[in-house]
Amino acid sequence: MTIDNSQNIEESLSEQVAALPHKPGVYRFYDKADTIIYVGKAKDLRKRVSSYFNRDRYESGKTAMLVRKIVSVKHIVVDNEYEALLLENSMIKEHQPKYNIQLRDDKTYPWICIKRERFPRIFPTRNVIKDGSEYFGPYANVKKMKGVLEIVQKIHKVRTCNLALTDQNIQGGKFKICLEYHIGNCLGPCEGNQTEASYNQSIDEIRGIIKGNVDGVIKSFKLKMQEAAAVLDFEAASEYKKNIDILDSYHSKSVVVNPTIENVDVISVISDDVFCYINYMRIVKGAVIQSHSVEFKRKLEETEEDLMLMTLAEMQQLFQSDAKEVICSVETTAVWEHCYFHVPQRGDKKALIDFSLRNARFYMMDRQKAQEKVDPERHSKRVMKQIQDDLHMTMLPQHIECFDNSNFQGSFPVAACVVFKNAKPSKEDYRHFNIKTVEGPNDFASMEEVIYRRYKRLMDENQPLPQLIIVDGGKGQLSSAVKSLDMLGLRGRITIIGIAKRLEEIFFPDDPIPLYIDKRSESLKVIQRLRNEAHRFGITHHRNKRSKNAFNSELLEIPGIGEKTAKELIRTLYSLERIKKLTQPELEEHVTKAQAKAIFEYFAPATK
Known about the structure:
alpha+beta, eight-stranded mixed sheet, GIY-YIG endonuclease, five-stranded mixed sheet, 5 domains, Nucleotidyltransferase, domain 5
């Protein structure tokens, strides 16, 4: 019965797909409960939908699972690809299908409202009412919106009250000026102290500031400043000068590149294996007047292009963009009638894309830091997966060990091994090594000895081996370490790399060409942290050994000076050379008279 039912579903789906037109549109997949499980868009509905049932098409297990659950297909034909994208977006929001990605951002954004009334008020709101009032926004960044309102209030003294300022009320003396008037935040239109024409001129200038077109306002203020100065009204001229400075400061912070770039949208995307981060910016005359970043979690095999276009359609609707040009970070084959796409390679527009990518990257880092606090295990897995991909490893590097050698002019040679488990330091597993078989400064031979001793012991004690070994150094140190793995029969069972400090080059055995990992990559940061931790741990051990040797060879040979006294002298006076230069009375400030005499007489010949 099950076989027959499966065959019936397959035959029914084949008929439904065959009936689909070669037109742009939106398709919906339904499961056996008649629930929408996926919504998609297509330039060609039949080609796109039929591709899901070609088993060679998809690699993702999630896609295969989706296809197994499809019982029926429905579609809507539209005029073009852009309309398909808009319809897809609205249907995803309405039905929330299980296998569709969604914008993680359904909150209501604030707007700046210029109220339709006599002596209009200006205020922030999250509710857009269709009463003829003007709304600017929405503002994804509330701080920026407050900054715009603060600038407006500094320059133009518009009212904040909600009084009905009709001619009749004002002429009848119904209202009295309030505290805002007395502290200079309002010019008192309620008592007729400011004319409606003067107030409306301020509203026009405010409208320009909110839109980001401050050049005209600055020009107007400069003209008024010159006129005031010409009639020796220096107080008014000074006030105009303050307003010009405020606007210049606001504009200089907003301008990114060439202010002749009139009206464009900028969108960039970066991603890892699971998440995708997209930044959208709206540019008017070179100034960023809107900026917003979003995060997606991939559910099927969505490409960066798909996610970018989906976000762009959403942002253009949200921010009411009428831009004819879209600057993007990835190539797209999309054709939208109302705008065209461009991937700049140089110049000011390339600078805009770089700026947008930086915003996307900062947003990604913020999200990752937040995720690390909320779910550190997931963060660790993501970092380890990144290391595995960057180093082309077959296993997840849950256990990593890093080695570093230290010596001082060939003396006191030591080595350090630090251990990271799940991308975090495992300090109880750190180990020091005193070099036993190597004489003189020979880093290569020292590395060979340490690697052999470390993994011979782990094998003898049946301890787990790491998935990744990092050697601090270039080809020479790496080759020496590999010799020891060969002797132990571990070659090929453990990934081993060397990292050279100068250019952060990653070397692999028998490969003369180094690997360069992106400097911003988390995997490189973990490798650098391992290297730096091994260096710190080794240097600390090396200093302790040298200090102990100094005690044994010098201070401890003086009669009456024990280890405790010697350590205290070094801790207080920092070095043996300084102790040698002190007089007997100066030494008596730190030790007994007898000890001071013994130390002074012991070192006296050396100071002559």
